[in-house]
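Problem: given the chain below (620 residues), write out its structure.
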Amino acid sequence: MVFEKIFAFLMSVFIAVSASLATVFPERVPGYDGIAVPADAPNTLPVYEEGTEMLTLIADGASDYTIVYGADATHTEKLAAEELQRYLSQITGVTLPLSSDLADAKTHEILVGRTARAADAKITRPVADEDSYTIAVLGETLLIAGGETRGTLYGVYDFLQDFFGCRFFTPELEVVPQQRAAAIPKNTDAANAPAFYFRHTSWRSAYDTRWRSKLHLNATMSAGHGSVDESDTKLILFGAVPGHTMKDFVPPEVYFEPHPEYFMMTEDGRRDPTQLCYADPAVLALAKQTIAKWIAENPQANIFSVSQNDGHVSCHCPVCGVIDEAEGSPSGALLNFVNQAAVYADTLRPGVLIHTFAYQATERPPKTIRPAENVLVQLCSIGNNHSVPYTEGNPQFCEDVKTWAEISNHLILWDYGTTFSCFLTPFPDLKTLQPNAQMYLKNGAQGYFMQGNRDSKSAEFGELRAYLIAKLMWDPYMDFDKAMQEFLYYYYGPGCSNIEEYIKLIEANRREFFRVGSEKMEFVDLNVFDLAQAEAWFDACEAQTLDTAQLEHVQRSRLQVSWYKSAHLKAEFFPLNPGRVAENRKLHENLLKHNITYLHEASPMLEKPNYYKTAASWNQ
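Solution.
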């Protein structure tokens, strides 16, 4: 053991000296070049077979088509008609007239949403899946219709993407190809519905209500987790607190001293305020009081949470302990409690869902207890290895997904797309996003939430992640590489091949095992030579940007490299470099310049950090 410690110490000295020499004698670091050849702009327009018969909507700056919506259209359907009009005008320069179905029918109409026209008979109403839609050519008529509170609007945005090459990458970045004509194949008859009914992410860029509609994100989990309004569409809404609610039912600061029996018993017989005792009737009574209050105060909400507090512990009292032992999991006593709350909630508002976590200690499903019909289970991947797809690194979790889906009427997932310890550290898991989504669908999950950096703009790849995740939630089998390449080109510019190479670098040097809660140093290993190459790639990408927005995107994403060097004391941030303090000051100024105000979850960056310390310590 002593020998191993001495060896480790000598190796650390060797690495430090090597890094120091690379800093003090930069000529000893090999020169690196970026990719100077610009990438070609991806073609987002569809390509049709020669001879395909087309229905022409607009040609040579003119059209006799009218966009028709129902006189009783929902707000969402009316918005869908207006958005179609607006984007077709941007594409062709022609603004089609809008009309309600009270006007006499014409030969050339684009029907948006539910109307009194005969063509609406193609849609089975009421629509079983509110998110679904149909795009069909019926003679000289084009129909875009579906769910009245979401699906029709989704159909319009997909019509613009699939037939006219539009892309909605971020709230600020869209691609709308210009063309003189607007035509679609006459044999168009496409019905579309999402793979998952619950779709939500809390990346900061996903806070925008309109962008969420364009990417079909249909749920939210209240303030702090990507809460948005319903000005566009009806959403799947959590009421009040979205999770870890036991502390809201029985606040420890109020009840622990007078009623320690309300709280969990540890294995050695002590009472502990971390979790509740689910066997105490008074605890259930207090929970019911709060549930009734929440339901009354949140008439628009669909879901209310009855979920364990944070922490990997559970009650070991004679009742809870016996239930959990018999069920083979601490989820037993919890689910028994949640079921009683769910039955009560259904008497207050029939059809309401009661949400609970399968999280940490309760991830494993119980052997015999089953969730009540109106219980929504949310399984969390908090302890998973994110270095590889879950099917490779977390087989037990995949089995848990399958089992919970089999025993529950409603199962969604809570996944994680960043680390809590530092949002700026490279998080090399992009290649796991699609196989994980496919596993969720295959194993029976009905939706998922992807937690991201909700606190400030991303200096890693948050905007890219939000876009790809939203696309996967609709279709886990979409062309992931094509979507990623399109985003990289339009977001970073023609030098985007350099960003692709950097992403490959961090993936190739990722740790074999890391969790979202791992320490900020435990995700990727980059040496000074890797970092020099990364800087060369970012230099080349910056040089090829086409506008100030692309330049800002490259410079902001580049901050992850500077943060990594500061946190790991590498290159110009090595302690023996006399300019290290100045480099830290410059890094801090650049973070503020690019509106990076949070480095750690719920912990703002210091306004005046100690520049003698690394950037890893700049949290409040």
